[in-house]
Amino acid sequence: MKKVIVCDASPLIALAKLDCLDLLLSCFSKIHIPEAVYFEATYDKRRNDAKTIDAFVKQHVVVHENKENNAYALFRNVLDEGESQALSLAVELECAVLIDERLGRQIAKRHSIPVIGIMGVLLQAKLNGQIPVIQPLIARLLENDYRLSNQVIEIVLTKAGENNKA
């Protein structure tokens, strides 16, 4: 059974740059974002990825009004607006959050919010047969200055059967 997810902006932007937003549909039953994330990911309509995200969101994503509840106030002390709203929404919906920023992931885990990152999405898509290989997508992420730890890359490539290290 596929899970419900709240997305932060960075993974949306990265997946749009890879032309892989549809992978979210194969991995999750429902996708939610707060308005702050939508704005952060689409504010500059001159960017192709912003246009792609805008079209994807209008067709497949539930956008929620920003909230200023207790969870938001707690997260906002240490995270940016989009991350704070995303974690707050995940708490409200009692679901996982798709987030890659290290501090955001640490805070989410500290508050028992299940976390998945873009590498988890790519791995799941490979295991589901949605994509044949992950390696070229990782290379493109790195070319676009997306921060990924070497350890996570190695783990994901091994699980995907693409790690040639012996």
What does this 3D model show about the protein?
The chain has 166 residues and is α/β, with parallel strands linked by helices. The chain contains 10 helices and 5 strands; from the N terminus they run βααβααβααβαβααα. A 5-stranded parallel beta sheet has the order 3-2-1-4-5. Helix 3 (35-42) packs across helix 6 (81-93). The radius of gyration is 15 Å and the shape is globular. The model has no long low-confidence stretch (mean pLDDT 93).
Query: What is the 3D form?
Result: globular
- Helix-strand string: EHHEHHEHHEHEHHH
Uncertain parts: none
Distance between the termini: 34 Å
Number of strands: 5
Relevant CATH superfamily: 5'-nuclease
Examine the coordinates and then state which fold CATH places here, giving the name of the CATH topology: Rossmann fold
Radius of gyration: 15 Å
CATH class annotation: Alpha Beta
Tally of helical segments: 10
The share of residues in helices is 55-70%
CATH architecture: 3-Layer(aba) Sandwich
Number of domains: 1
Biggest sheet details? 5 strands, parallel
Q: Strand pairing plus helix content: what structural class? A: alpha/beta
What is the typical, i.e. mean, pLDDT? Answer: 93
Main-sheet strand order equals 3-2-1-4-5
The fraction of residues in strands falls at: 5-15%
